[in-house]
Amino acid sequence: MISPTTDENPSAPLRLRPPRHAVDPRAVGWWALQWVLLTAVPVVILVVLGALIAPARFWLFLPAGIIAVLGAAAAIALPRLWFRHHRWEVTDDAVYTRTGWFFQEWRVAPLSRIQTVDTTRGPLEQRFGLATLTVTTASARGAVKIEGLDAETAADLAAGLTVATQATPEDAT
Amino acid sequence: MGSGIGFALAWVLPPLLLVVIGGGASGEWMWRVTRYRVDDERFHVHTGVVVRKRLALRRERIRTVDLTADPVLRVLGTATVRVGTGEQAGTEGSVTLWPLRRADAEALRATLLAHAARPAAGSAAGTGEDGEERDGALVRFDRRWIRFAPLSFLTPALGAAAAGGLIQVSEWFGLQDELFESIGSWFGLAPAVLIGVAMGVGLFVVGGVATVALWVESWWNHTLDRQADGTLHVRRGLLTTRSITLEEARLRGVEVVEPLPARLAGGARVDAVATGLAQGEEDKTDSQILLPVAPKELADRVAADVLREPDSPTAVPLRGHPVAARGRRLRWALATVLVTEAVLVLLGVLLTPVLLHIAWISALVLVPVAVLLALDAYRALGHALTDRYLVARSGTVRRATVALQRRGIVGWTVRQSVFQRRAGLVTVLATTAAGSGAYAVRDAAEADGLAMADAAVPGLLRPFLEPVSAPAPHPPAR
Fold it and tell me: To bridge B93 with a disulfide, which of A38, B87, B274, B393 should be the other Cys (CB 3.0-4.6 Å)?
């Protein structure tokens, strides 16, 4: 609208639409737990040190409190924000994802160029019944990653994608 | 004095002799234990002194055969051959044969890369009728390029390294105090500023000489030619000769790189954007350079010849990016200066007022420099689509114009930060198997960048695009 591009481009200006599917709602809990664990480690260390070293107690408890508050805020707010913005879609031709809010990122990889399809499940993901699907292309920086999928959905997707990629004869570079 | 020299020789000669004999023996040993054989399908190597290793590389996987010869190997008429399969990770994909007779090495290269001839010949026939006459030398070495050699960030770095080395060596001999005293005494001869400037110039001269020497060693007698079997062949080097081969079928484009000092003198370098070039390995970082820094027009012409195009895609007129991108660059530049100054002022208030004076003097210099760099960075931004290439340019300290084959694009990554969203800008990255893995069109107008990506690879992005209809700033995500 601001840019003078419409004159040369006969079609209306375009934007990327959100992919069709949201991630599994359990991903909210998984992301929140990750934040909790991430902040718990420094907070626990600082509190233990504060309990042992009396003279420096204030200067150890203060950062511990700050980190705990920030961590709690992140654990409450960010997963919900991410849940609304992390979306994915697999069509007959391509894998399409959107991630992030502050730095939003859309990734598209055509099935004909896919080289590997992996699902990974970390210990936390297993507890939540989740899995991460990673699709790599010949590009070192072109991998498409879908976090927070239901484990079964991820396995089905991986199987489907593997079949689809084998069907295409190109060497994918 | 004679006894002193004799004493020194007695200490130095035996280890030297040991090194020479050791080197010779290990070469001889490697020569005896290494066997290689080429059959229809595979290239077999048996090697290893302590750990015996058997290797079989599939011939159609072999991507590079590089020959290097340091002065000793050259005198002996031998060379080191490195055969690579271009696997992204690990060392399993490559094997080094050392030493090999020069003639054998050349023959081995010709045999191993023979399979490159077929696809390249096919693509040459498809790409144009003038492809045939472009065979042979694409560029010949020109001694005048040496004027670009000292225009490198290496010059001040090597100058500083020399100064550091001098101080270190003087300490070893216990002469450091004398060194500092004599330097201090110079300041009595003329105004301190003058002496300081003279010493700075001295550092640049020493660094410049060192850079020129390095340049001559690596780039003397550089030639780039296309061989009949469809491979590009770079040969260069004064003492150690290097010979690098690149299959044309692996070429996905070229990048014309203009580092700031060279750009001010009208120079540019040509890099190949190719799949399977080892990246980040030691001594391999230069293997993608097709032409060292040379006049810009020549660089563009070489880029065109390498791609078998009549005109270089790297020299086409580019579409500029919105003014909002200039604002972002100005803000980044001034924020960097502001942080530096804030630190100086804070320390100045806390410690010594001298820092406050340094702060305002440096601000007088840094603010205009930052603004100039930001404006220059904005001027660099641009992109274009030609029949076969996506062309994108960006950067000020290292300005790079990449021409990437549209058929080499294996996906898209579109990025937009909160600030870019407000300004209506996007960064579009074309991912590719070649070169650095992704090439960016930075801060293009949102509709413009997406339309470009949509047009560059027909059909790929189209299903995920929608017309902008609602005045909503962004697709609702509820």
Answer: B87
